[in-house]
């Protein structure tokens, strides 16, 4: 029995449809703001990469994953919003790896979205999964796609950074994120207090939303 | 020479950091941000609940939708097959009765389904003939009669 199977929520402990519906009803405005904010941030502002309208499709896919058993929710152990965040994180990561654009298909694909604790529980994609990546040796077509993704990602980052031209603190935080640093490391590196760092991140979130809306308007 | 940057990874790191930062915020701060962006928190709550309820409904209806899709595909495949069915309703009825007479087992099945053949509408007969053709029974019937279909 694999470690992955051991960590799976037993079927008898998985939430029923009625429990999912009940959990939706008791959700607070704070939960909604957090879920929507998370979904929109992780899933938007993409070019050729997995795209989403505004995160709603990612939220829906997380629910589909729960109800179809692709990723089970244990209501006695994990609050529903926490479960949804974990499922969305997994789905987004999986979609990135597989370069899938249909997040619902990712939720319903062969691979199990198994562990609430694991930030990337989909590393072991089934070869039968049509959304899995191909072999380690990239074909010419695969290389072209990779190059296109690289160009699009580079342009997006460049545009996003340009929208912060007047905010050097934000640019430093973006650079630190790109280097893989987390909040505490960035605060220490840049000598920022918790409040100062949070204020910069808030500005970044606000600008990211404006940036996304403006790109959508330009695209339509 | 410095290693080439992986821009996709960089973009993912930025998006992850932005999304994870939402999780660290208090409800009050998040709701204040919602208001600052001109949204009503209660409207946002209603929207999110609506998205989730709709997702539950669509997931529950998925087997039904899949079955319908499969049915439509089968029906479309049946309709796309070309059959040289007789031109008139009377001739179709005659062919149908002939096939049934030559295939008692089929006749038995159809009797259970339709009860009385003489009350069948032409539409039902045409549909039955198409299905019988798919089963190859019209060819057999024609061969036994020594005729062409």
Task: Determine the strand fraction of chain B and express it as a percent band.
Answer: under 5%
Number of helices of chain B: 8
Rg estimate of chain A, integer Å: 19 Å
Major pleated sheet of chain A? none
**Average of per-residue pLDDT values of chain B:** 82
Which range best describes the helical content of chain B: under 10%, 10-25%, 25-40%, 40-55%, 55-70% or over 70%?
A: over 70%
Largest interface: A-B, 57 and 45 residues
**What is Rg of chain B?**
31 Å
Structural class of chain B: mainly alpha
**Overall SS class of chain A:** mainly alpha
List the helices and strands and how they pair.
The complex is a heterodimer of chains A (220) and B (149).
Chain A: H1 3-6, H2 17-25, H3 29-43, H4 56-67, H5 80-98, H6 103-107, H7 140-162, H8 168-178, H9 183-190, H10 194-219
Helix pairs in contact in A: 3-5, 4-5
Chain B: H1 7-24, H2 27-36, H3 41-60, H4 62-80, H5 89-102, H6 104-114, H7 122-134, H8 137-145
What would you say this structure looks like, in words?
- The complex is a heterodimer of chains A (220) and B (149).
- Chain A is mainly α and 220 residues long.
- Chain A is built from ten helices and no strands.
- Chain A has helices spanning 3-6, 17-25, 29-43, 56-67, 80-98, 103-107, 140-162, 168-178, 183-190, 194-219.
- In chain A, helix 3 (29-43) runs parallel beside helix 5 (80-98) and helix 4 packs across helix 5.
- Chain A is globular and about 55 Å long.
- Chain B has 149 residues and is an all-alpha fold.
- Chain B contains eight helices and no strands.
- Chain B starts with 6 loop residues before the first helix and ends with a helix.
- Classes of the chains: A mainly alpha (220), B mainly alpha (149).
Notable characteristics:
heterodimer, A: 220 residues, mainly alpha, 60% helix, globular, disordered N terminus, B: 149 residues, 77% helix
